[in-house]
Amino acid sequence: MSTTEARTTAAAAVTASGLTKVYGRSDAAVHALRGVDVSFDAGAFTAIMGPSGSGKSTLMHCLAGLDTVSSGSVRIGGTEITGLDDKRLTMLRRERIGFVFQSFNLLPTLTAEQNILLPLQIAGRQPDRTLLDRVVETVGLRDRLGHRPAELSGGQQQRVAVARALAARPQVIFADEPTGNLDSRSGAEVLSFLRTSVRELGQTIVMVTHDPVAASYADRVVFLRDGLLVRELAAPTPQTVLDTLVSLEGAPC
Amino acid sequence: MLRTTLAGLRAHRLRLMLTAVAITLGVGFIAGTFVLTDTIQAGISRSFGAAADSIDVVVLPPPGDKPVVLPDRTLAKVREVDGVASADGLIRGTAALVGRDGKTVGDHPTRGMSIDSRVSITKGAAPRGPGEAVLDENTARLRGFAVGQAITVLDQMDAPHRFRLTGLFDVGVDQELAYFGAVGFDAATARAMTGVKGYAEIDVKAAPGVAADRLRAAVASATGAGPEVLTGKALADRLIAANGASAEFIALGLLLFGVVAMLVAALVIYNTFAILVAQRTREMALLRCVGATRRQVFGSVLLESALVGVVCSALGLAAGLGMGGAALAVLEGMDVPLPTGTVALAPRTIAVGLAVGVLVTVGAAVLPARTATRVPPVAALRTQPEAAVDGPGAGTVRRVAAGLLLAAGAAITAVAVTVLGPGEVALFTVMGGGMVTFLGVLVIGPVLVRPLSAVAGWLPARMSGVPGRLAVDNSRRNPRRSATTTIALTIGVTLMTMMAVLTGSIRANYNHKLEEQFPVDFMLSTQREGSHIPSGVGDGLRGRPELASLVRVRQAETAVTLGGREARRTVGAYEGPLEVSASSGSARGLAPGSVLAAEGLGVRPGGTLTLTPDKGGEPGEPVTLRVAATFDANATPLPPLVVPPTEFARYFDVAGDAQIMVDVAPGADPDRARKLLEEAARPYPTVRVAASTDIRGQFDEALDTQLMVVTGLLGLAILISLLGIANTLSLSVHERTRESALLRALGLTRPQLRLMLSVEALVLGLIGALVGVALGMVFGWAAIQTMFADPIYAPPVGQVLTFVALSGLAGVLAAVLPARRAARAQITAALSET
Ligand SMILES: Nc1ncnc2c1ncn2[C@@H]1O[C@H](COP(=O)(O)OP(=O)(O)OP(=O)(O)O)[C@@H](O)[C@H]1O
Ligand SMILES: [Mg+2]
């Protein structure tokens, strides 16, 4: 924990402290987060791991302002977001956050290109054409831009979603199991693409995943268990991630 | 399977709610119609039955076209028949009541009648002797007369007589008396006032112990051939049947609107079940996986619809009882002379209501149920839960079928307009063509949605940015669904537009005619056909500087032989500056020995006809006249046969004018001219002054009322179609939960999400309205062509545009609740939903 505290510098893109989240009331209450302190560096690729039900998605939703927290604070680039009203939160997401979900990322009525441009248009911003070209080039979707999601494979759809998140140049991109529905080859394409965008574009990415191989693409992995941050790992490889997971299974927290 | 169905119903009850309301409203309207007319019918039977109780036998004049009366000797003969306790003759004619303003009341003279023991005096006493009279309650109230006051009534020579009002009476269910109003006298006075020399009816009371049937036979043999002799009960039955027919006619008219409403409801139901089946594809497939047969899946959807149908029809019956009662209360409040009573649901009403509700619901669900059977079991394994976005929905079959229907509709309409002459046949043919065309539109609908949404959404998409563009895309993503939703609205809008177009065009045509027929500023006429404006009126107006022209028309009825056939016709003459535009021949050729004849009498210029002069009731020696010209009677305010005024005076001894037409001098004040004319007419109670604007105003009012009533009745169909829009939207919102959450995550605000759904509804509403307005304008035009010979087509553009705007607005209103629900949803909850 103290290491996390030490990392809270000007370079942190997202910081959470004392974050708790309780679903339901009294006897039916579920403590999804029990006091999480974590921060994510700007320009870094961080993975969140943990067993099913450990609170990964909940943490991500709270960090991204999609859900309200029970207590604690979340700061995105210096802005305290707990306590913001829906309108301000919406503006925050619109201006500063990008999303990639596990599935159903795209609007079926829009073409790939229209989907990519959608957040910019919602925000009323002009797309940065050179950036857009580069993004499209990197995702390798140039000849697919006019297609609708139904005409794209699952991997292609996820790459469009990633391109959409990148095109708006958000402060941070949150990805919840972006490769969960993909085979290993498509998954690898999307992951290396995410890593490239961090290396080359300086993008900040926070990714939830179950897969040690996926986590190994990140610069750092944090481990959750029963709503608490229990371990973290720098410069992970599939093997070290797997070992950590195995040791977590055994050890009581 | 029943248990699964019930569980499904419980789960979807919110989604079925709007559909349920649609069925309930439709069934309620139909049941309400029955409740209303049944109650009226029961009231009629009760009133006539009660009236029949007091008479045993009735003698009526022989049936025929000409109104004849029973002579005194018939009454005398009846009175002598054995077993007759008493017999009263009923005298009926006209006796014009003069109002407080010194003019005869109403557009037609009040009826004059004898008062006998059968008439129920509700206040005061029956009239006795030559100085007393009674009025019907309604006329007394309307004209402000109270018992004890003096009233003035004109006799047949328009001479005024004063009476003391001794009481008021109830006209009961007599439509004629209720409509015209009535003055009652004792028998001798009634005879003197109406000038009728006989009886319209003789009412006989049997002596104690004499059966009505036997007495009827005895009276019949006494009166001999000719008069009709009936028992009181037989007469009551006949009157009940005649009045019941009119109640049935009302029922038929109202049911027509009920059918339209049910048709719209059927579309809404169809759409709901189609969407539900699409959304439950996985559930159906799962059922198939666990061993349900196609039949069982089909049955479960139908069963669901049948249950909905039964429950909603029952609710509809209750609603109908309320609507019928409310309608009766309104009618009573408006003093409509209808017998009423307590409202009740007849077994027939219950049967029809349930049958219609259930059959329509189940019928509409058949196609969706069949779709459900086509769901393969493997669909359960597919991951994408989203209901499939259907394709353009336009197979070749669809296009060909629609093309054929549209072509047939156009051809039928074209035949009606061009080949068939104006008339009812052509009008009904146009309606038939309209229905076929509508079917074509129904079939081609899904193909039209895409281009129409581009048109209807052009402005909204530009005005509301990203949400607007997404909305327009959404409106066309399920063309079939959108088409069915909008076509339900189209039905109502088409009929409304057609009514508005017809009303506007009829108004224009009528005004045009009025200008031809009534080419003057003022017209003086009398209340009663056959009575005259005393010559003094016209003489007094001559030479007044305020008046530019004065045309005096005289007329008389006499025997005219035309093409070998003799008939009574009106012959007239005019003095003054009137241009008669001849359709053939020349009106200038009108000289002694010649005549102008209306078109359609079957004579041509150069032909002849024979006219019998009539002076003082003595037929003179027939004269033969040459036809100088023919004219269009509809465009000329003259009787069908016109002779020179000098000749008219030789043939007839008519003292006054039938009409005086007056034009105001240029620059003169029309109000002053009117005062002048009213002053001249004041001494004569039957002479009335009308301005062309008055007549136009009355007609306009009648047309507007009619339009309002029809619009009100069509309102139900429109309301149901709006429920349909709300329903489609809320079902779509439901299946797009994840999509909405995604948009919110990407930065769409709550108001923007609401805006998006509102614009989608707006576009749907506008599509429905655009198609409806187009159809309504075209078929309104075609209908007008069949109604007039030289029709003027005057669509009320403002009104029609209002319909379009209102439809859009109503669509937006329909979206309020679904949009609220979509916007309120928690993003994270929606995202984790599968
Ligand atoms: N809306 C909710 N209401 C009640 N409990 C919830 C809700 N959402 C999540 N939970 C509970 O909170 C805990 C954490 O859930 P969360 O979805 O964050 O887990 P996760 O780590 O993302 O799991 P997975 O790997 O399966 O996605 C779980 O116990 C879950 O049951
Ligand atoms: Mg999760």
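Chain B has a mean pLDDT of 84.
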